[in-house]
Design a protein that fits this description.
single chain; alpha/beta; 8-stranded mixed beta sheet; 16 strands
Length: about 425
């Protein structure tokens, strides 16, 4: 009986959402010239009265040219600002549609160790939140799995495409590790200190044993692959095969950790596993140990910035200051929202960080070139340079300010219609019949 009630609701909800998830008009594609605007390249300074030429999927030119082939579609951006598309370095966009409906939630699996799981396979290109996000200037996101100690591999996607393959910047961008917490989960956590310590040690022991097994498997496979003659091939293990990319150095390991003590424990673990390309994420109390993180040379993905302090007695502004304090210590900082439907607010996370101590140019880098560098894709995205993917947007002011309007968005060279569920609802209600 319950199934008969729930299934029609899911079908109706899915139909409703799919309507708003679709683009109502085709994006333009070809050759575009953005002329007369202030071009913020991020890596090569600012170009006043600049010109950006887009040819197909790539940026062909960025400079002060006044003449170019007549077959370009000219877009006058005088008085406007041109920025590279923003990159959110940690989201669940495309993996969750309606959190209250389990069949639309694809960010988690059972079990503590799932390195073989790929977020890429679960991406929904028609997710309603994608158009909402991209018209805010966010063109690229890292979507990650969440459950267990090693939940699997994240995917880096552009926010335009009809299939996950057409959206992918990197199908498997990073392996994720949720560091075992050595402390209380919150005020509601009634465990004794001894129980907390015991659970932490048990989880850390499991993690170390698992990684040692994965390392041994990798070494055995390397020996076999170097010279298989006369040797028995090791039994194939899907989990261990997935971990080989970590030991080869092909994938960074993004370690989610928040508390001061846990961050220090994670840094000690990183020191003893030098073969792993480690990145710290979330780091709510990173500001407390900024010097140690900088000394270790480990980059961080801070966020969400718009959060409450980790400890009740901390100053309310500590989460806003976190990115700035880390950057001042010499840490390479990117910013994430850790959101699904509110990834659109990424510019304001960076804006708050800038208002509370992070240099404004560094705030822009934290959502453009820095995440690209951390994820190893700065050759393709993260700045406005000839030869890079044409991910950029045009705004009428500072994009870190809430009153700024985005006029144009380009993703992979496609001139994206500025349409989303939000704009459609706005039009519907602004034009409603009041009688």
């Amino acid at each position: 009986m319950l199934k008969n009630i729930i299934l029609p609701f899911i079908l109706i909800a899915s139909m409703h959402l799919s309507v708003y998830g679709q683009i109502t008009e085709k994006p333009g594609f070809g050759k575009f010239a953005l002329v007369g605007g202030t071009v913020h390249t991020i890596t090569n300074g600012t170009i006043e009265d600049g010109t950006v030429l887009i040819h197909g999927n790539v940026i062909e030119y960025a400079g002060q040219a006044t003449s170019f082939d007549p077959d370009y579609t000219v877009i006058d951006v005088s008085g406007r600002h041109v920025y590279p598309g923003f990159i959110d370095a940690g989201t669940r966009l495309g993996l969750i549609e309606i959190s209250a409906i389990p069949v639309t939630v694809d960010d988690a699996e059972l079990g503590n160790f799932n390195p073989h799981m790929k977020a890429f396979t679960a991406i929904n290109p028609a997710a309603v939140a994608i158009p909402v996000t991209r018209v805010s200037g966010v063109t690229t996101v890292l979507s990650y799995p969440t459950s267990g100690i090693i939940p699997g591999k994240s995917t880096l996607i552009n926010l335009y495409g009809y299939t996950p393959d057409s959206m992918a910047v990197v199908q498997d961008a990073a392996m994720h590790l949720n560091w075992p917490a050595d402390g209380r989960r919150g005020w509601w956590d009634s465990r004794s200190d001894e129980d907390i310590r015991r659970e932490y040690q048990r989880n850390l022991k499991q993690l170390n044993e698992y990684l040692e097994e994965a390392k041994t498997y990798h070494q055995m496979m390397e020996v076999y692959e170097a010279d298989p003659s006369g040797k028995m091939r090791p039994t194939r293990n899907a989990d261990m095969e997935a971990m080989r990319a970590v030991y080869r150095g092909d994938l960074p390991v993004i370690i989610s950790v928040d508390r001061e003590k846990d961050i220090l424990n994670a840094l000690e673990w990183i020191k003893s596993n030098t073969h792993i390309r480690a990145v710290l994420s979330s780091v709510a109390e990173g500001w407390r140990v900024a010097g140690q993180i900088a000394e270790a040379g480990v980059p961080v993905i801070v966020g969400p910035v718009l959060r409450t302090p980790a400890r009740g007695y901390d100053n309310y502004q500590r989460p806003y200051q976190n990115a700035g304090l880390l950057a001042s210590a010499g840490v390479l900082v990117a910013i994430q929202t850790s959101q699904t439907e509110n990834v659109r607010n990424l510019p304001y996370h960076a804006g708050y960080a800038a208002a509370y101590g992070l240099d404004r140019e560094e705030a822009l880098k934290a959502i453009t070139i820095n995440p690209a560098r951390i994820l190893g894709v700065d050759h393709a995205i993260g700045s406005i340079e000839a030869g890079k993917t044409a991910n950029l947007f045009v705004s009428d002011g500072d994009p870190l300010e809430t009153m700024t309007r985005i006029d144009h968005v380009f993703i992979r060279g496609f001139n994206i219609p500025m349409v989303s569920r939000h704009t459609l609802l706005y039009q519907e209600y602004i034009e409603r019949d009041v009688n």
